[in-house]
Write a structure and sequence with these properties.
Elements (H helix, E strand, L loop, with lengths): L4 E3 L6 H7 L4 H7 L13 E3 H15 L4 H6 L10 H8 L4 H11 L4 E2 L1 E8 L2 E8 L8 H19 L5 E3 L9 H7 L3 E2 L6 E5 L12 H13 L8 H12 L7 H7 L4 H10 L4 H19 L4 H7 L5 H12 L3 H11 L2
Parallel strand pairs: 6-7
Antiparallel strand pairs: 1-2, 1-3, 4-5, 5-8, 6-8
Helix pairs in contact: 2-3, 3-7, 5-6, 5-9, 10-13, 13-16, 14-15
């Protein structure tokens, strides 16, 4: 997979948060191998692994587990942090359309994590998932990304989630999380997402300008004019949230890419892989992240990934890794990695 990168965006507020907490941002940046000057420009790009490491080091040096929430609470850490796509969102007719703007254009400025919007059975999940190996614990980065999404929703229409799911163990003090989101927070979840009623997606965006949006749609297509990720990388991005919603069939992913399934398979074969290989890798990757970062049982993880029973999941996991899920988890936790 191509090495990921992250647009600085809302992370530009991190240095001021660190200073307020009595920590030198230059030292934190150096520990993450990031030039501090890059954090002053929201349009700068840094390696995705460095972005994850930066938030991890920041949390450790400050002793502030919820540092991602402090960054997201700063002025400008909302749609204004993502340039033209943010302007497009601010002029969307509804919250749902604005969130789709975010999800559909995210690849323009980030490779390594993916926001997603799933609506079914009266609920809507606005989530954030990491699909690249961050090289370090990414829980603080993931929480920060979700918190920025929360700030965007508040800015657009003041909608409030009915629940917040966080795919991490509970912190020593969960109160800052409840205060920030203003909603029940569930830790040890199978995903990190804001959960809304689907009715919230129809809420109008305040002060949206339809005429401005029409011009912005063209501008966004030309903004950050970059090549699309490889087909295999696009499939990984699409599959990462889908494996938790049993929407990971070849036909579904091919339709999302506007390709015939056979055409998609041929494109993947040309890149030396297959849909089944990517799906198997994605399922194992999600399972490993959940085993490492949450207290979810193996049975619960198997169910989250759509397996009919735990033995089927264990057999599939063993085929991919050479270890059973329980052995992998025990070894991983013992190593502290």
């Amino acid at each position: 997979m191509t090495e990921g990168w992250q647009r600085v965006g809302a992370m530009s507020a991190l240095p001021s948060v660190l200073r307020d907490l009595g920590v030198d941002p230059a030292e934190v940046a150096a520990a993450a191998d990031v030039e501090l000057e890059l954090l002053a420009d929201q349009d700068s790009q840094i390696p995705f692994r460095s972005a994850c490491l930066l938030t991890k080091v920041a949390a450790e040096r400050t002793g502030c587990d919820h540092i991602g929430l402090l960054v997201a609470a700063r002025e400008g850490s909302d749609t204004h942090s993502i340039g033209a796509v943010g302007m497009l969102m601010r002029n969307a007719p509804t919250l749902g359309r604005a969130l789709l703007d975010l999800c559909e254009n995210h690849h323009r400025y980030v490779r390594g994590g993916v926001p997603y919007l799933v609506a079914r059975d009266g609920s809507a999940w606005l989530g954030y998932a990491i699909y690249q190996d961050p090289g370090a614990s990414a829980e603080h980065f993931q929480v920060g990304a979700l918190a920025v999404g929360f700030s965007m929703v508040k800015e657009l229409c003041q909608a409030r989630p009915v629940e917040v799911l966080l795919s991490r163990r509970p912190p020593a003090d969960p109160q800052p999380y409840r205060q920030f989101f203003g909603a029940p927070v569930t830790f040890d979840a199978d995903q990190s997402a804001l959960v809304f009623s689907t009715d919230a997606l129809a809420l109008p965006v305040v002060r949206a300008d339809p005429a401005a949006r029409q011009a912005l749609e063209t501008q966004v297509r030309d903004y950050w004019a970059i090549d699309l990720p490889k087909v295999s990388d696009q499939v990984v991005r699409l599959l990462r949230p889908r494996v938790l919603f049993t929407d990971d069939r070849l036909a579904s992913v091919a339709a999302a890419l506007a390709m015939h399934p056979r055409v998609l398979e041929r494109a993947l074969q040309a890149e030396g892989t297959s849909f089944r290989a990517i799906l198997n890798h994605t399922q194992v990757d999600v399972a490993q992240r959940l085993m490492a970062r949450t207290r979810l049982s193996i049975t619960a993880i198997a169910a989250a990934l759509g397996y009919a029973d735990t033995s089927a999941f264990s057999n599939a996991f063993r085929r991919q890794t050479g270890q059973s899920p329980r052995v992998w988890r025990t070894t991983h936790l013992a190593q502290g990695t």
